């Protein structure tokens, strides 16, 4: 099969010392960037873009892509250890991962996250290898009407699964959508909610500082409160975890196998669609695992499926997102937009013929992704013990560091002090929300999906010429509308069934 | 006493001389030592986009003219007004430039309450153009612009054209074209140039209005996308197979252009120094070749010609925005 020839050619490129070095550098930088709250892959790629100017384009892409999928490995580490997501795609991991850490099971959580990430990352690359052009064409059948229904479906279904009382989740979702509407509207027509006396609001409220604030700064504040009110000794794990607890038990592995598989497939498919697929796939995977689990009440209290599924999903989603970029030259998210820029800076204009015209770039990248994923597994697994012990660091040391990284990270998003204010405000809000028993994950979801919904609504109205009933005649949207109806009726049906039983 | 008086006098004299010398020297350093620091170009967009890439290309090719180097910073947000405002407020010492486009320097001011006006900055020169291109998915119904217009005439209101945004320059050019051709097109706004392509390829919209660089990327041979026309006076070297609208009977031109601007109070001699050196960079064959590869039309124009162009576009855009009901 010619694919094997191409792949072998790719390995011959990827195994060149310079490209191995680039893959390793990407893996390390990506992990670090993923671990540090606030600084995400977008920031790191943006900073390194100019540096790659003088390097060979394949090497440059290997490095930049390595940072991207590497950060999906690293992001889970702080999520699990200190409930601070390293970046937005690890928010969902905080739900169960942190609980596992509090139970002294940080080791298994980290290990499963790493293993799931590796499995998903590798399968994702296999998916690219064999299916890229075909999948890219299929992704094109998704147009504004389909996105509209997808966004609506996500907004309807996902708050039901992120834990906490459902009405609280919907309230936060609505708040998130509202916050995201500050600034420029998604189709670039006008600026909203930016009164003259606060001109900085014109640039909108970026979701990265909000996520860092809601989780990171809020946790800092909560830890500080604990310290002030209690005797000053943290109520975390009081003893060094025994070595046995550093690795997942056989039962852990058995329970994680299916979620990893499902997360892989789900993440890959979601990554194919426009939008921040790596973030959205984590929510969807978490929801799916909770619904399919025999013990849904364990979710939110340390169910390992809640870590295995989402962590796999965000890794295969990065592979999925690369497909439209490489097979069609279309970036479907801001990070892939940066990667596109990184390629264009070398005078290569990605388009539908990239795979054919630039085999060294494409196959070299694919081959190096296999290698990169292995490197990341080797990097992350042995360090599980070290990282797990980090969770025992006294808050006196850890908390100011986390706060510092959040502030620097928030500023680095847009070089704007406004984002730091947003961070601090979100931190206060997040702290109060937690006190009131709200889980902030739906707020983030609302901020991300809200603009998608609005843009699709405008576009769909124009495309369908106001004939909204056509949504029922298009196959994909009809299916999604049916799912929405199910999602709406589900809580009612379930309660009726529970009352009847 | 007399010795004291002499001392004081000579001290006063030397003090005056010293101060005078310092002032003269610093004035001299402004004129003859420019550039003696690193220059910062502010791009009011995120990294990876056309403004960002073009600014970086300038920085990359400026090693001889600007020995201390040029650094590109991104300051996105507010429809590019945030970054523009940063430069407007910056120290007018010639070391902070704005890599600004037509929208943020002129036409966007119609619908955004920006914290600056067209009088708050000085143009140094125009860098170049990215003329608007009309693209379609290959379709038996239209193989050239005339057939496209014919179809639109027979089926008014059914032809949907994707644009990078409701207020984008490309959309305005599309409206101008629709008026000249006497057809009614439905403008569907997407979030940026890149998002239009999947809409066209998937058949969700029939056509798209994009910048020349994006058009070149996607309208290659072997792809499903065909570039029907480019709205420029003449064919653009980087994308020579696309006929102009004028060639096909529709005299419409429109482009997003890029300019270098500095704060208003920047002294004339500094501005001239920047102009002289930058002009040489824009003539560098390596730079020209790099830009042609991405279909960016380098089109050096001096400050006064650039200003006239911007003012003219500001008027035209104002009329269209008013007609569309988008003026603030």
Explain what the structure shows.
- The complex is a heterodimer of chains A (501) and B (328).
- Chain A is mainly alpha-helical.
- Chain A has one domain.
- Chain A is 72% helix and 1% strand.
- Chain A is globular, with a radius of gyration of 22 Å.
- Chain A starts with a helix and ends with a helix.
- About 2% of the residues of chain A have low confidence.
- Chain B has 2 domains: 160 residues, 3-Layer(aba) Sandwich (D-Maltodextrin-Binding Protein, domain 2), CATH 3.40.190.150; 100 residues, D-Maltodextrin-Binding Protein, domain 2 (3-Layer(aba) Sandwich).
- Chain B contains 11 helices and 10 strands.
- In chain B, strands 1, 2, 3, 4, 5, 6, 7, 8, 9 and 10 form a 10-stranded mixed sheet that branches.
- Chain B starts with a helix and ends with a helix.
- At the A-B interface, strand 1, helix 13 and helix 19 of A face helix 2, strand 2, helix 3, strand 6 and helix 7 of B.
Helix proportion range of chain A: over 70%
Number of helices of chain A: 21
Fourth CATH level, the homologous superfamily of the largest domain in chain B: Bordetella uptake gene, domain 1
How does the overall form of chain B come out from the CA principal axes?
elongated
- Mean pLDDT of chain B comes to 87
Q: Helix content range of the residues of chain B, please?
A: 40-55%
Approximate shape of chain A: globular
Tell me about the biggest sheet of chain A?
2 strands, antiparallel
Spell the H/E element sequence of chain A. HHHHHHHHEEHHHHHHHHHHHHH
Tell me the span between the first and last alpha carbons of chain B. 75 Å
Mean pLDDT of chain A: 83
| Element-by-element helix/strand order of chain B | HEHEHEHEHEHEHEHEEHHEH
Gyration radius of chain B, to the nearest Å? 24 Å
Q: Approximately what portion of the residues of chain A adopt beta-strand conformation?
A: under 5%
**Could you name the ranges of chain B where pLDDT drops below 50 across 5 or more consecutive residues?**
26-30
CATH architecture of the largest domain in chain B: 3-Layer(aba) Sandwich
Euclidean distance between termini CA atoms of chain A: 58 Å
The biggest sheet of chain B, with number of strands, parallel, antiparallel or mixed sense and barrel status, is:
10 strands, mixed
The figure for the number of domains of chain B is: 2
Total beta-strand segments of chain B: 10
- Assembly type of the shown chains? heterodimer
């Amino acid at each position: 099969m010619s694919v094997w020839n191409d792949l072998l050619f790719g390995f011959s490129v990827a195994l060149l010392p310079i490209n191995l070095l680039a893959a390793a550098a990407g893996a390390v930088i990506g992990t670090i960037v993923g671990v540090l709250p606030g600084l995400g892959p977008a920031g790191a790629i943006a900073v390194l873009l100019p540096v790659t100017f003088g390097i060979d384009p394949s090497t440059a892409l290997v490095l930049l892509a390595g940072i991207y999928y590497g950060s999906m490995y690293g992001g889970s580490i702080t999520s699990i250890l200190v409930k601070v997501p390293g970046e937005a795609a690890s928010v969902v991991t905080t739900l169960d991962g942190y609980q596992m850490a509090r139970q002294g099971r940080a080791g298994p959580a980290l290990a499963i996250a790493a293993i799931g990430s590796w499995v998903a990352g590798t399968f994702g690359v296999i998916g690219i290898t064999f299916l890229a052009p075909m999948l890219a064409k299929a992704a094109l059948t998704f147009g504004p009407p389909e996105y509209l229904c997808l966004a609506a479906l996500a907004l309807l279904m996902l708050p039901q699964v992120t834990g906490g009382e459902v009405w609280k989740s919907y309230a936060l979702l609505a708040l998130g959508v509202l916050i995201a509407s500050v600034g420029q509207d998604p189709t670039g027509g006008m600026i909203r909610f930016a009164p003259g006396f606060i001109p900085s609001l014109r640039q909108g409220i970026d979701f990265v500082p909000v996520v860092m604030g809601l989780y990171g700064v809020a946790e800092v504040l909560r830890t500080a409160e604990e310290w002030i009110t209690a005797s000053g000794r943290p109520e975390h794990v009081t003893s060094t975890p025994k070595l046995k607890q550093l690795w997942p038990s056989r039962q852990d592995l058995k329970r994680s196998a299916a979620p990893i598989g499902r997360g892989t497939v789900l993440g890959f498919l979601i990554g194919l669609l426009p939008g921040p697929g790596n973030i959205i796939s984590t929510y969807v995977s978490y929801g799916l695992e909770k619904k399919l689990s025999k013990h849904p009440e364990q979710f939110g209290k340390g169910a390992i499926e809640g870590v295995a599924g989402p962590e796999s999903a965000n890794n295969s989603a990065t592979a999925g997102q690369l497909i439209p970029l490489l097979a069609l030259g279309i970036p479907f998210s801001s990070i892939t937009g940066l990667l596109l820029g990184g390629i264009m800076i070398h005078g290569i204009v990605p388009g539908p013929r990239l795979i054919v015209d630039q085999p060294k770039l494409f196959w070299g990248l694919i081959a190096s992704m296999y290698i990169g994923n292995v490197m990341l597994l080797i990097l992350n697994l042995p360090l599980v013990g070290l990282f797990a012990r980090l969770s025992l660091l006294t808050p006196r040391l850890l908390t100011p560091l986390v706060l510092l990284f959040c502030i620097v990270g928030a500023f680095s998003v847009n070089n704007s002090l406004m984002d730091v204010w947003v961070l601090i405000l979100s931190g206060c809000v997040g702290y109060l929300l937690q006190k009131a028993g709200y889980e902030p994950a739906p707020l983030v979801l609302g901020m991300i999906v809200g603009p998608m919904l609005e843009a699709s609504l405008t576009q769909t109205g124009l495309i369908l010429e106001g004939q909204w009933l056509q949504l029922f005649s298009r196959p994909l949207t009809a299916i999604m509308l049916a799912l929405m109806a199910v999602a709406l009726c589900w809580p009612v049906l379930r309660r009726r069934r529970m009352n009847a039983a | 006493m007399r010795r004291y008086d002499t001392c004081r006098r000579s001290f006063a004299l030397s003090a005056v001389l010293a101060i005078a010398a310092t002032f003269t020297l610093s004035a001299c350093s402004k004129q003859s030592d420019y550039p003696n620091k690193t220059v910062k170009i502010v791009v009011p967009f995120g990294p990876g986009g056309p403004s960002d890439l073009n600014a970086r290309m300038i920085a990359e090719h400026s090693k001889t003219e600007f020995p201390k180097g040029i650094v590109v910073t991104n300051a996105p947000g507010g429809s590019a007004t945030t970054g523009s405002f940063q430069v407007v407020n910056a120290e007018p010492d010639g070391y902070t430039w704005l890599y600004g486009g037509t929208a943020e320097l002129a036409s966007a001011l119609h619908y955004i309450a920006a914290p600056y006006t067209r009088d708050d900055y000085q143009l140094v020169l125009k860098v170049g153009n990215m003329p608007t291109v009309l693209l379609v998915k290959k379709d038996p119904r239209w193989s050239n612009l005339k057939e496209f217009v014919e179809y639109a005439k027979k089926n008014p209101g059914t032809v949907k054209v994707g644009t990078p945004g409701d207020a984008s320059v490309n959309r305005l050019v599309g409206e101008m074209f629709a008026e000249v051709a006497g057809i009614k097109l439905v403008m569907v706004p997407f979030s940026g140039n890149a998002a239009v392509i999947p809409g066209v390829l998937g058949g969700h919209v029939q056509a798209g209005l994009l910048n020349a660089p994006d058009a070149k990327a996607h309208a290659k041979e072997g792809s499903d996308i065909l570039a029907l026309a480019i709205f420029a006076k003449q064919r653009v070297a980087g994308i020579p197979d696309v006929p102009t609208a004028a060639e096909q009977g529709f005299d419409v031109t429109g482009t997003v252009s890029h300019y270098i601007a500095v704060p208003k109070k920047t002294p004339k001699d500094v501005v001239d120094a920047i102009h002289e050196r930058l002009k040489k960079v824009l003539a560098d064959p390596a730079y020209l070749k790099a830009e042609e590869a991405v279909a960016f039309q380098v089109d050096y124009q001096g400050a006064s010609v650039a200003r006239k162009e911007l003012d003219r576009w500001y008027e035209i855009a104002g009329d269209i925005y008013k007609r569309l009901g988008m003026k603030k």
